[in-house]
Amino acid sequence: MLIINKKIYFASDQHFGAPTIKQSKIREQQFVNWLDSIKNEAAIIFLLGDLFDFWFEYKKVVPKGFIRVLGKLAELRDSGIQIHFFVGNHDLWMCDYFETELNIPTYHKPKEFTFNNKTFLIGHGDGLGPGDKGYKRMKKVFTNPVSKWFYRWLHPDIGMQIAQYLSVKNKLISGEEDVKFLGEESEWLVQYCKKKLTEKHYDFFLFGHRHLPLEIAISENSKYINTGDWITHFTYAEFDGDQMMLKSY
Predict the structure, then answer these.
(1) What pLDDT was estimated at residue 159?
(2) Which of the pair, 36 or 141, is modelled with greater confidence?
(3) How far apart are CA 104 and CA 83, in angstroms?
(4) How far apart are CA 15 and CA 176, in angstroms?
(5) SS3 helix, strand, coil % of the chain, rounded to 5?
(6) Which has the closest alpha carbon to 77: 101, 50, 53?
(7) Strand partners for 227
(8) Distance, CA of 182 to CA of 169 (rounded, Å)
(9) How are beta strands 213-219 and 106-107 bridged, if at all?
């Protein structure tokens, strides 16, 4: 267990690079401003996936752009603030760039943490729980080593153009038709949290992916928080050592 005397912050689904580079830079600057605003109070920052609308690491090439946010993350990490990154469905081809260049650990699955005697299960949230079978099949194809090997042989200019097109146009990837609350019984992440709670107690479940700021009681002393997004809601979660709060910037 880690005792935290400062605050822990959670944010997800920035989708930098979409819908256009010009529009994305405005949101990127807003996010950087938010990071600046919390740096004196933050002990840890969790980024819960889809920081980029698309990301692919070739052996010696990474996507162009995102200098402001990458530079700010490097600055915060160098100042001693812990940062953890969970891969989302839009940046699932991330490898070791964040770990080697920014000293930010990267996770591809939900991970458990304990702070101040509170237990957290944290992840991006894609493909968890029942349903969403179309996306789950697609994810298996995208994460297959053979698929990645073939894609890597495309010239980056071609590969990035194809990926950016699919990221916006493919409904299974973009989730455009899914940005509405379905009700507790139909929310797959709520069902996932309830199932996990039968196996072990968690005080807080923190996920992104849904693009909706949500705060739902899973039991009398367990809560599911969805951090929303930085496209429409500009929301984040803040843990002050005892209480969890959803806030907007």
Answers:
(1) 74
(2) 36
(3) 6
(4) 13
(5) 35, 25, 40
(6) 101
(7) 213
(8) 22
(9) unpaired
Beta-ladder partners of 204? 120, 223
CA separation for the pair 191, 132 (Å, rounded): 12
pLDDT tens for 43-98 read 999 999 999 998 888 777 888 889 999 999 999 999 999 999 999 988 888 889 99
Q: What is the pTM of this model?
A: 0.91
Q: By C-alpha distance, which of 41, 48, 38 is closest to 12?
A: 48
HSE (side-chain half, CA atoms, 13 Å) at 245? 9
For the segment 221-247, what is each residue's pLDDT rounded down to a tens digit?
999 999 999 999 999 999 999 999 999
Q: Are 228 and 215 in contact (CB under 8 A)?
A: no
* Integer Cα distance of 145 and 148 in angstroms: 5
Where residue 86 falls (left for φ over 0; alpha for ψ -120 to 50; beta otherwise) is beta
Tell me the β-bridge partners of 11. Answer: 47
User: At the top level of CATH, which class does the domain 7-248 belong to?
Assistant: alpha beta
